[in-house]
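FORM 7B: Structural annotation worksheet

SECTION A. Query
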Amino acid sequence: MCLDIFRRLMIDSKHFLKGLLASKKFDSPAIALGASFLAIGALLKNLGFSIQESIFSTLLTYALPGSLVMAESMVIGASLINIFLAVWLVNSRLYPMTVSIMPLLKHETQPRWKYYLSCHFVAVSSWLILKSNYEQIERKYRIDFWIGIGTATWLIAIFSTILGYYSADFLNKDLIIGLAIINPIYFMCAMIGVMKTLQLSSAILLGALLGPIFYFISPEWSVLMGGITAGTLAYFIGENHGN
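SECTION B. Predicted structure
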């Protein structure tokens, strides 16, 4: 009995390794993730961060927009509570992703600590990798597979930050900006690829249309306002058309 409990508490190494290796495919979003964090590393050095601060930024924040907000807030002298709230608000965009994948991962035989731990790994890149592969994994071991994916993308982000930090002298401003937007562009292309229902198509198209419109009303809130409005309209469109 004690042995069974011990096995339940452990991460299954076979499926963890599968998740770890799932990010190495040629079309993996982890490549775009690494390119963006190269830019983050270079930016943090240019802003005066030490290598230790840069590593811990990615280690603890693990999100491209969150890292940017944190760095900019620190540079302008924002208080710790303001930085926390700003990063929290930016990263709240990951909540819908968490809601969408947790039902795919839950299994009664798995301990809760795995789910608490794995929440740190929720990001666009890891989410896309899981959504492309989870059906191939037995439900019981999906959480171990997910932790492997998260660990891989997390380590890629940290390594890329270090590489970008030490490559900063060789990267000009335009190149840094180009690298930084690779991950969002990849995500946008992936979203276009899943436009298979009226609801999804409406959400993406309305978001692309309303975002720039709301920018003229409030540049600071345009993305949030456009996203909420587009998503709400798309939901009702899908409900009314049974899709």
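SECTION C. Observations
The mean pLDDT is 82. The radius of gyration is 19 Å.

SECTION D. Sign-off
Analyst initials: ____
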